[in-house]
């Protein structure tokens, strides 16, 4: 089966997606699937690329750049800048290139039902939740309302749209909001993932609050009472202007290009053009907005408690099974920087609470997954409060796909290595696409062919290949890389063996593959498994036995 791995896309999370495409390519079972790489550029065009495309550190490193000295994405380049090196393919020809689309994209257009709808129109099956679950999963305002209807949870929220914000007395609005929600206030961009745009206002400081709201609208003011660095434009040096313009390119911390000057409607695609324009306007008040700016901002009360993230998968009957939840701690807020850039954030499975509370989290997550119409898999975040309430938010319908992503760690706890997890995702997606009643015979044939290959592998196991390592962190890391490489080859069945001494060795189970150090590994080997992990493994055994 040919699998088109879709990565990139026009959303602000495309760098996360770029890394996810690399993970999918490296870990897809080559004995079952033939990967085909589909890079979706910033303008939403589909380009077939070679594996070498994914070897760059970041997407901007592989995109051709102009002579300006700025590092930009392709929206800032000429419309045909990628045409020569990366040929475009049209949706109506997808079926000639691959049999199923593996979606490793995130954010608006990629995770909201847009790409899913396009693929359904062209009768192309795809991985992950369908149209309903995707549309709900991208909208944080709607999520809060539907989760409250699904399980009765109570969480204080408020919203404001852009027009109302522009008319509002900012100080009065901030005061009324603090009276309603208290401090701190969590400020969110409703349609972004990876915590992009999230800010926490901890003090009664109006300037900080206004900057946070502008950040979530993806706007910037150039005026004397502006709340961003742009308000000081006339006083900046040439180097400071270049640095600021380059920062604006950033998809996770800047408003990104293209931007529009709201007073004139002029669209600016390149940072150098922006510098020239602002210099020519000589301090005239104006507002810059991303062409993909949010029109609403969501405010939530700050929840104190243990933060967690919990994956959900399905069996063939469509029944949701919650994976063991991961607790996120040692972090003030689980934002983009703490998720992807900091090494200080700590995680543990399950949550450091009672067995009953962990079960309560799983039940709440599985219930919301089902009632919100999500299928295949998802990751749902939340808090366990000091009074033992479970408050959920932010269903994520295409969780991040780095090798160390939370959902892959949770799937390892039930016995699925990274390659098995990707196979599950493809197979279960086919099963769920069949339920739509579209192109049913073709999808059933794809599923039957895959099931036959999986059954044959169970009946005729691949030869075992032992990967051994000694008591060093470096050796452990190298052994895990080799294990994953062999698992994805489709030629052998790897096993990982820890040679602690000449007389003492251990075969490492899949659930310990994500330990990072020898010390963590030895601690885990010396302790019994948590009852929740044993319990969840048994609940999911009828799923995992198909792949292991």
From TrEMBL:
Its main location: cytoplasm. GO terms for biological process: cell wall organization; peptidoglycan biosynthetic process; regulation of cell shape. Its cofactor is Mg(2+); Mn(2+). Keywords: ATP-binding, Cell shape, Cell wall biogenesis/degradation, Cytoplasm, Ligase, Nucleotide-binding, Peptidoglycan synthesis. It catalyses: 2 D-alanine + ATP = D-alanyl-D-alanine + ADP + phosphate + H(+). Residues 219-427 form the ATP-grasp domain. GO terms for molecular function: ATP binding; D-alanine-D-alanine ligase activity; metal ion binding. It holds the Pfam family Dala_Dala_lig_C. It is found in: Cytoplasm. GO terms for cellular component: cytoplasm. Its EC number is 6.3.2.4. Belongs to the D-alanine--D-alanine ligase family. This is D-alanine--D-alanine ligase. The lineage of its organism: Bacteria, Pseudomonadati, Bacteroidota, Cytophagia, Cytophagales.
């Amino acid at each position: 089966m040919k699998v088109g791995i879709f990565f990139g896309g026009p959303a602000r999370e495309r760098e996360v997606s770029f890394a996810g495409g690399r993970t999918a390519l490296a870990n897809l079972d080559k004995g079952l699937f033939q990967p085909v790489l589909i890079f979706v550029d910033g303008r939403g065009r589909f380009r077939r690329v070679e594996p070498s495309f994914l070897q760059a550190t970041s997407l901007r490193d592989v995109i051709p750049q102009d002579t300006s000295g700025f590092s930009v994405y392709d929206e800032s380049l000429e419309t045909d800048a990628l045409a020569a090196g990366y040929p475009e393919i049209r949706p109506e020809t997808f079926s000639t290139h691959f049999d199923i689309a593996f979606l490793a994209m995130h954010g608006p257009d990629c995770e909201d039902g847009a790409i899913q709808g396009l693929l359904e129109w062209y009768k192309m099956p795809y991985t992950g939740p369908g149209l309903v679950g995707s549309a709900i999963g991208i909208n944080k305002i709607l999520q809060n309302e539907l989760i409250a209807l699904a399980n009765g949870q109570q969480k204080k929220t408020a919203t404001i749209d852009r027009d109302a914000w522009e008319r509002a007395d900012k100080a009065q609005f901030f005061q009324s909001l603090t009276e309603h929600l208290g401090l701190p206030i969590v400020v969110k961009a409703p349609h972004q993932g990876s915590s992009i745009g999230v800010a926490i206002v901890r003090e009664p400081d109006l300037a900080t609050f206004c900057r946070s709201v502008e950040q979530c609208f993806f706007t910037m003011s150039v005026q004397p009472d502006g709340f961003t660095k742009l308000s000081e434009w006339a006083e900046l040096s040439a180097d400071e202007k270049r640095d600021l313009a380059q920062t604006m390119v950033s998809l996770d911390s800047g408003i990104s290009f293209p931007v529009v000057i709201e007073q004139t409607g002029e669209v600016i695609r390149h940072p150098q053009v922006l510098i020239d324009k602002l210099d020519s306007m000589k301090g005239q008040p104006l507002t810059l907005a991303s062409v993909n700016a949010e029109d609403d901002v969501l405010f939530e009360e700050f929840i104190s408690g243990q933060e967690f993230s919990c994956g959900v998968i399905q069996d063939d009957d469509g029944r949701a099974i919650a994976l063991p939840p991961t607790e996120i701690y040692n972090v003030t807020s689980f934002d983009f920087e703490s998720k992807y850039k900091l090494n200080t954030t700590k995680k543990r499975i399950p949550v450091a609470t009672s067995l009953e509370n962990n079960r309560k989290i799983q039940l709440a997550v599985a219930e919301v997954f089902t009632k919100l119409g999500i299928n295949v898999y998802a990751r749902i975040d939340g808090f366990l409060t000091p009074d033992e309430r479970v408050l959920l938010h932010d269903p994520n319908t295409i969780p991040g796909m780095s090798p160390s992503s939370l959902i892959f760690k949770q799937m390892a706890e039930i016995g699925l290595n990274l390659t098995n997890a990707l196979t599950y995702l493809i197979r279960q997606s086919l099963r769920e696409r069949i339920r739509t009643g579209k192109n049913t015979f073709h999808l059933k044939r794809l599923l039957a062919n895959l099931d036959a290959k999986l059954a044959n592998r169970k009946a005729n196991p691949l030869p075992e290949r032992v990967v051994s390592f000694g008591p060093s962190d470096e050796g452990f890391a190298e052994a895990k890389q080799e294990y994953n490489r062999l698992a994805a080859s489709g030629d052998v069945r790897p096993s990982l063996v820890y040679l602690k001494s000449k007389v003492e060795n251990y075969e490492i189970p899949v659930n310990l593959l994500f330990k990072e150090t020898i010390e963590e590994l030895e601690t885990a080997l010396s302790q019994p498994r948590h009852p929740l992990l044993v319990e969840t493994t048994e609940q999911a055994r009828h799923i995992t036995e198909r792949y292991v």
